[in-house]
Amino acid sequence: MPFVPAQTEVNLGGVSVSTWTYGNQVPGPEIRLRKGQRLQAPLTNNLPEPTTIHWHGLALPNPMDGVPDLTQVATQPGQQFDYDFVPPDSGTYWYHSHVGTQLDRGLYGPLIIEEPADGADYDDELVVVLDDWIDGTGTNPDQVAAELRKTGMAPMTDMGPDAGITPKTPMGADGGDVAYPYYLINGRIANGPQVKNYRFGQRIRLRVINAASDTVFVVGIPEHNMLVTHTDGFPVVAREADSVIMGMGERFDATVTVESSVPLVAVAYRKDGFARLNMRVDNRATTVNVDDFATQLANTSPLDTATLVATPEVNLPAGDPDQVVEWRLAGPGKGYEWTINGQAYDPSNGYRVEPNRRVRIRYVNESKMVHPMHLHGHTFQVMAENRAAGQLLVPKARKDTVLVAPLATVVVDVDTDNPGKWITHCHNTYHLESGMATFFHY
Ligand code: C2O
Ligand code: CU
Predict the structure, then answer these.
(1) CB 182 within 8 A of CB 276
(2) Distance between CA atoms of 148 and 339, rounded to whole angstroms?
(3) Which atom of ligand 1 lies closest to the CA of 437?
(4) What share of the chain is helix, strand, coil (3-state, %, to 5)?
């Protein structure tokens, strides 16, 4: 499928904006392949500035990773670049621009790699792409970034030593740095939602993707439980949940049996507003008050998919780490700088690790804000402390993006089996743009 990013007018369900898109639509066109099929995406850049495409979550060959300065030269306006590779794993992924603040325009879309067995235990699929939207509403993401650099966005001071962490606010009191006028599901604002028609009792597989730039979401459906089956593409031991929290870049799959007409709601965590999509069953009107439900959803104790357990076939082989890398996350400093181990991102200065080894990464959050930390080219295994068994670390979900709560540490293990230069960064667009990235190489 050719990709020609360009400036476009789009209607977000009642609000028209001028923005940058793939294929004149938000989200960009869905890519759907069967496992083993080749992804061919020739890019022609019709934007006024350089761009790249990153294929989020895939263990792809390094030159296809789409990181400017690190894995390729960004494609200049009018120029072309050929993305061409075979995605190695099935699951729910996505693609997006990896240059500047372009992700916070409309430059993202879903990427689904199907397994032969997919569809055996559900009747239909629903891809749900979440976003926070500001572009074309009187400002644009470059202006947002400039404003943040100017005002600095001082850390909140009244949160106490725990940074405001409670069961209902597991990621702390700070909901982000940007107040967005709109939150979207599949490119539609909450007042002009997409409507999906179902029959009573149909089993739907949800594939939920958080493509936002500065918004963690809590997702739920009134009167229904979700059976969470995958996170970041990889299967987990299925678990029922009435709400799931997801950072920017994270995905989860869940099955739900629809029994009444309801909205699917994604509340912006510790912000004002929500996104919605309407699931209509047998053409009936809903009896749910969406505002009340959103308030209720904001007060649940949501499931963090990092705490789920990988199914045995996707566990990394048991083994102790050969090497430990610690990445301390801090900010914001002067001029809204965010750092890892005291350094802002420098594509010429990374961390050397050994090939064909088990590397343990410790993401240590020294700031009072949550950071969804993402590693390219690998799916790590989250390792959680098992207090009952002393300080032992036990394997949890396989993931590529994980929420690191304020003042918390998240430990993940990864096998170095895909050589190259692999960036790790906060998936908050403005933190990444302000330095919160580094890379390892082997
Ligand atoms: Cu989804 Cu480096 O990004
Ligand atoms: Cu961050």
Answers:
(1) no
(2) 15
(3) 2
(4) 10, 45, 50
| DSSP structure class, residue 103 | G
- Fold entry, domain 312-441: Immunoglobulin-like (2.60.40)
CB 30 within 8 A of CB 128: no
Instruction: Tell me the per-residue pLDDT of 60-86, one tens digit each, with 9 for 90 and over.
Output: 999 999 999 999 999 999 999 999 999
Q: Is the CB of 276 under 6 A from ligand 1?
A: no
Please work out whether the CB of residue 425 comes within 6 Å of at least one atom of ligand 1.
yes
Q: Which atom of ligand 1 is least distant from the CA of 432?
A: 2
Q: What is the DSSP letter of 155?
A: P
Q: Domain residue spans in the chain?
A: 6-114, 124-134+178-307, 312-441
6-114, CATH topology level: Immunoglobulin-like (2.60.40)
pTM above 0.85, yes or no: yes
pLDDT of residue 156: 47
| 109, 253, 290, 370 from 278: Cα distances, Å | 20, 18, 10, 30
Ordered DSSP codes for 338-358: -EETTB---TT--EE--TTSE
Structure tokens at 146: 């400039």
Written as one string, the DSSP assignment of 274-297 is: EEEEEEEETTPPP---HHHHHHHH
* CATH topology for the 124-134+178-307 domain: Immunoglobulin-like (2.60.40)
